[in-house]
Amino acid sequence: MRAVCVLGTGLIGGSVLRAAVRDGRDAWGTAASEPTAAAAVADGFDVTTDTDAALRRAAETDALVVVAVPLTALDAVLARIDEIAPDCRLTDAISVKGAVADAVIEHAPQARYVGGHPMAGTAESGWAAGDADLFTGAAWVVAADDGLDLDVWRDVAELAWACGARVVPAASDEHDLAVARISHLPHLFAAVLSAVGAGGQGDDLALSLAASSFADGTRVAGTRPELVLAMCEGNRSALLAAVDDALGRLGAMRGSLASTGGLAATVTNGYEGRQRWASTREPLALPVSLDGDDPDAVLAELRELGRRGDVVEPWKN
Amino acid sequence: MRAVCVLGTGLIGGSVLRAAVRDGRDAWGTAASEPTAAAAVADGFDVTTDTDAALRRAAETDALVVVAVPLTALDAVLARIDEIAPDCRLTDAISVKGAVADAVIEHAPQARYVGGHPMAGTAESGWAAGDADLFTGAAWVVAADDGLDLDVWRDVAELAWACGARVVPAASDEHDLAVARISHLPHLFAAVLSAVGAGGQGDDLALSLAASSFADGTRVAGTRPELVLAMCEGNRSALLAAVDDALGRLGAMRGSLASTGGLAATVTNGYEGRQRWASTREPLALPVSLDGDDPDAVLAELRELGRRGDVVEPWKN
């Protein structure tokens, strides 16, 4: 089994490290601070603040390096990789894929990079909040752009399965547009709904009458603002497209409400979307062979599978 | 205890009738169809399709008449009231207050009307879905506009308490603006979010990645469209104001995202709104005396209490 070097052992990286160790792999990690490293060591894990040493060991063992630092710390980490383990097997666990791929091309161009996005999280953060079961049943997007190394693709998929996740292949740009629609826009809608509810006539009547429709619609507005900002601002151009789609629909709705008073198109489209989502809840797990003469044809097949809402079936060894 | 005549024995009216009977009151109702009346009679309740007979009995006993028919059926019911029990004690359980008050002035001008809005519901509808406990812990808005009859106000509040609800006094127009913000707008936001999630690049990738933020943000988009339309379209002008508030905030957000990429104002305002809502969850129950030389001063005091997010404390008999 492929060894795993996890750079950054917060909630996500710490959970990947725990799951990799549980899977019986040789796995180690790095922490940004001594207290975090000490806490992880006390829990029985091999975690250091010495990123260079961790990367040397990755180069020696041909390990899969998993970048799980915040987007703002990415460039510095990639520079160390380019210095110490330039052609390593590389993936990441950051919530945008286009920006990370661009940064890899700029700062660690020789790395064999295949992006990843394990789609799980909690309101908590940090090493202590990590859990080997965090990704159980969650989607783990694995980038499937033309030109990627299928051998590393296999490593990333196998790590995702070891973490209990289902593997969803997607082009990086399509991933970014998709998460803008179903994760980042919901956070912004929740924030605006919350502000409208609280901002009314300057009193608490509206909030005192708010019940389940408001509670559900604004739940994620209670997330720590810095987490929401890092996620949404990091996906700026895709998010702008999703916001413009929403504004177009809201503008048409506003026009209809003002002119005829009718809301049927808005409400019916929303109802149908929700029904369609409910029907995608059980993805098909389909077998895919990564072997073949034309790697880009395999990657194209993977992307098509993801677009249909399906997942890759774990292969038998 | 005041007798109660409930016009319309669907989910809301049927629940009010059950709670009134459980409270030991003389209570009867009307149904729009024979099968509904038969079902209610089979359950041991005094329900007829003869609205005129029910209203004659209300006039004879000085009962509180509760209109619980859909907004579209309101005018016809008010016309019967004006014919048979013109100066009856009258309230309603419809989700908008301004439009109902206007209809009463037009079609039953002598009625002693005090509007009500019990804020509870389920996805179900009809007599069979009714429950004497439907309103337990729910807000029950009682209109507190100048000029209302405080003796009927007392009747409505006492009925709300008999149903287990908390009494929130509000001006009719302020109620309509408030529910537009915290109930009707959340339904429209959920519909748009659902359509954006489903409408992406014409494939199922986005929906297959959707998790809790999307699930919560679109939950009420799964409500039957006709119920959402009746509710939202019936509150057109107040809803338009809420939509415009939301569009203004979204437009500012879009401008900031496009120009600087920053979303801090949006996300922070949303977080603060959600925190403020959480802090309004436990209303104070305050004593109010309905006796006094100046009824409008009492009504003004009631409105102020509701604006602060508080409720009226049940009086001791």
TrEMBL record, chains A, B:
<dbReference type="InterPro" id="IPR036291">
    <property type="entry name" value="NAD(P)-bd_dom_sf"/>
</dbReference>
<dbReference type="GO" id="GO:0006571">
    <property type="term" value="P:tyrosine biosynthetic process"/>
</dbReference>
<dbReference type="Pfam" id="PF20463">
    <property type="entry name" value="PDH_C"/>
</dbReference>
<dbReference type="InterPro" id="IPR046826">
    <property type="entry name" value="PDH_N"/>
</dbReference>
<dbReference type="Pfam" id="PF02153">
    <property type="entry name" value="PDH_N"/>
</dbReference>
<dbReference type="InterPro" id="IPR046825">
    <property type="entry name" value="PDH_C"/>
</dbReference>
<dbReference type="InterPro" id="IPR050812">
    <property type="entry name" value="Preph/Arog_dehydrog"/>
</dbReference>
<keyword id="KW-0560">Oxidoreductase</keyword>
<dbReference type="InterPro" id="IPR008927">
    <property type="entry name" value="6-PGluconate_DH-like_C_sf"/>
</dbReference>
<dbReference type="GO" id="GO:0070403">
    <property type="term" value="F:NAD+ binding"/>
</dbReference>
<feature type="domain" description="Prephenate/arogenate dehydrogenase">
    <location>
        <begin position="2"/>
        <end position="288"/>
    </location>
</feature>
<dbReference type="GO" id="GO:0004665">
    <property type="term" value="F:prephenate dehydrogenase (NADP+) activity"/>
</dbReference>
<dbReference type="GO" id="GO:0008977">
    <property type="term" value="F:prephenate dehydrogenase (NAD+) activity"/>
</dbReference>
<protein>
    <submittedName>
        <fullName>Prephenate dehydrogenase</fullName>
    </submittedName>
</protein>
<comment type="similarity">
    <text>Belongs to the prephenate/arogenate dehydrogenase family.</text>
</comment>
<dbReference type="InterPro" id="IPR003099">
    <property type="entry name" value="Prephen_DH"/>
</dbReference>
